[in-house]
Amino acid sequence: MSREQAAPYLAEALGTFALVFAGPGAIAVDAASAGAVSGVGIGLSFGLIVMAMIFALGHISGCHINPAITLAFAARRRIGPAAALGYIAAQLAGAALAGLAIVAIVGDYADAGASLPRLGGTDAALVSEAVLTFFLALVVFSVATDARAQGALAAIAIGGYVAMAATGWGPVANASMNPARSFGPAVASGAWHAHWVYWLGPIAGALLGALAFDLIRPGSPPGPPPPGRS
User: Fold this and answer.
1) 198-219 tens-digit pLDDT
2) What is the pTM assigned to this prediction?
3) How far apart are CA 35 and CA 32, in angstroms?
4) Through-space distance between the first and last CA atoms of the chain, rounded to whole angstroms
5) Please, what is the Cα angle at 115 between 110 and 116, to 5 degrees?
6) What backbone phi and psi angles, to 5 degrees, belong to 64?
């Protein structure tokens, strides 16, 4: 494999490492420092790192950094099966390395930022993960795949949504929306309780979000208004 062929997979690994190191890492640092980061700071850490990585890596790999999003792209035939599997393997590897780095630097505080059901238990976690990822996928497909959207602002839209979800819904089940984000801290801390929720919920939500975008997307750009109408 040439360097050009390997670049997208390396970008996915690096982007996912950055996501897990910044987001779950902020949760671990917050626990280790008795709340110095705060819930708002954790939410901003997630949103800002996603925005930065899309700006930095989006032109190389698309910056999925999320197996659920990659599977949604594959289901809508926007990425081939072999490339999708390679992306997911790279994402999981990057996430695992980031989880290990969190534990090595901070210690096993808050299970290295692992995703665990909290308010409402497993049922609430599953539903919230599906709903949150549904709208994440809808935003991603709307701003990143449609030429009529403001593509240059895709990173801000996606990062802003992630920050909102992590801040507002993090106390329910960590608002993972991303199997890799949950996988990395679980590998490092051994916190596997209800881990299946963080695969099933995001994957189902992402697939439905991509389908919803296809259903609402207009077939062609709107034409000019008729004469005499604004």
Assistant:
1) 999 999 999 999 999 999 987 6
2) 0.92
3) 8
4) 55
5) 85
6) -65, -50
